[in-house]
Amino acid sequence: MITTLDAIQAGVTLAALQRQSLLDALDNRVLLCHALQLNRIALITQSERALSEDEAQRFAALVQRRLDGEPIAYIVGQREFFGLPFEVGSAVLIPRPDTELLVELTLERLPPQGRALDMGTGSGAIAVAVAHSRPDADVTALDVSPEALAVARRNAAANNARVTFLHSDWYAAIHDAAPFDIIASNPPYIASGDHHLSEGDLRYEPQSALTDHADGLSALRTIIAGAPAHLRPQGWLLMEHGYDQAEQVRALLTAAGYAEVQSWRDLAGIERVTGGRLAA
Length: 280
What we know:
Its EC number is 2.1.1.297. Helix content is about 35%, strand content about 20%. The chain is an alpha/beta fold.
């Protein structure tokens, strides 16, 4: 019976570790594969394999980190997004399935040989997914964090995606750049003091990438205000936002003169991305 960390010791079998675990079954399997450098099939075919002392200690240490609340993605150093593997760590947000909607909408609107800008790229998930799917596109990604940009560059290289990365506080580094067909962004949109910031995985993620330290809309306002100077006529601005912010973001876009303003729902039915088209 695996009811305490002390039960994870030399001699315990893979089958025993999977029959009863201190963790959720999926978390347990991911960490077991990571600790032993095995794939899921090997966990089945080698079910009677017994752990060595070193393997037991390594796995127990990973389990403890998860019990302490550390996200699985940070423990194993990787998360899949848009079918691609992404390195993640404490310098970047963990890419989430909800953001795949933003990538899909960007790809639908990006013309042949088009130019796309990802603002606040973090791990590079959006930019790399777009560039990987559309090798003909000219993709640029910005972030104010040098540490995040280092991660993003490694992710682009690992996924053979051609992306230009720039260190920039929003639009600062691209004032002379040619206009873009699409600007996409998943900016910090959690309001300061929101209880979610002290719960679950968010406790471990970079706070500056989660919250604007204001009302949750300040980064979105900055992006909306600056986009016309960097978009081609009829170009699209697409932004991810909080579960309850769609109406406010639509109002901001409409007030700024954008056309075809609308919101799109994620797989959970939540209005997750809002955008508009620059008037001609």
